[in-house]
Each structure stands twice: as C-alpha cells, then as structure tokens.
Amino acid sequence: MTSFVSHVTVDSSDAYTLSEWWKPVLGYQDVPGDPNLPGHEECMIVDPDGEGVNVLFVEVPEAKTVKNRVHLDLRPRADLRDVEVERVKALGATVVDDHRGIYGPGSGWVTFADPEGNEFCVLRSREEVGAADQAAAPAEPADA
To answer: Are residues 81 and 134 in contact, defined by beta-carbon separation less than 8 angstroms?
Structure first.
C-alpha cells in the first residue's frame, strides 16, 4: 500500500489573511460550502478544477525563523514564466532569488516569499519546457 498527498499545510500567523493572499496566486477557492472567515485558525483552499493539491493554512504561535524545508513550485497554467513572475510580484510576492538563465537562455526559475516569508518558486510553463526539449533534440535526417 502507498499514500498520496491529501493537502499541503502551511504554518501561518493569520490563516485567513494568508489563504486570501494565495487564492489569486493559485486561482483557488474556498472549500465549497465551507468558506474561510477572519479568525478561523484553519483555512483550506482548493483547485476549482480538482486537479491541484489542496492547501491548508494553520495558525501557529511561532513566527517563521529559517528557510522552508518544503516549498511549493508553481508552474504557470497558461502564461509564460516571465509573465507569471510579474503577475505574482504585482500580487505582493517578494523576490528572494532569481535563477532565470542559470542553465542557459530560457532556463531557470524565480524564488519568492509570500507575505509571511514562506518561500515558493515560479517555474517555466509546460509550453516553455516542451519548446526547450524540442530545441535540444537532435534533428532527424531529411531522408527519415
């Protein structure tokens, strides 16, 4: 028997406020029929398409003091990485480190922090990864 990831839990000082910040970043919503409200110590947000992993924000008394041991890697659903990077910045994320181009043109990711300092990364879109794979593939001979 094996297990699967039910949801990712994020410790926070204000579960409601942090869940509200993450909803537009991920395009998620409250659990249908169970809205998150100010003062709730646990706030779950879910992918409306049912494809993404649910995220639970839980209030804890201690503040974040060191780098996350686990973090979220976000892949844009439709836009390119750089468009998503700008969108996430406009929502209030703070750039921690920019690794774009680290493995050549078009490669890499950007590491951000959410309003409570939890780190996450924005990766290239599937389209960008596919285009890079195609460009790296050896060309087929003309007579193939």
So the answer is: no
Mode of pairing for the β-strands spanning 54-59 and 94-98: unpaired
Q: Residue 136 is encoded by which pair of tokens?
A: 């790296």
Cβ contact 45:30 at 8 Å: yes
Q: Are 44 and 55 in contact (CB under 8 A)?
A: yes
Laid out side by side, the sheet with 7-12 consists of 7-12, 54-59, 42-46, 29-30
104: alpha, beta or left? (left if phi > 0; alpha if psi -120 to 50)? left
Segment 41-66, tens digit of pLDDT: 999 999 999 999 999 999 999 888 88
Residue 67: count other Cβ atoms within 10 Å of its Cβ: 9
DSSP string, 57-71: EEE-SSPP-S--SS-
DSSP track, 60-107:
-SSPP-S--SS-EEE--SSS-HHHHHHHHHHTT-EEEEE-TTBTBTT-
Token readout for 70 is: 């686990």
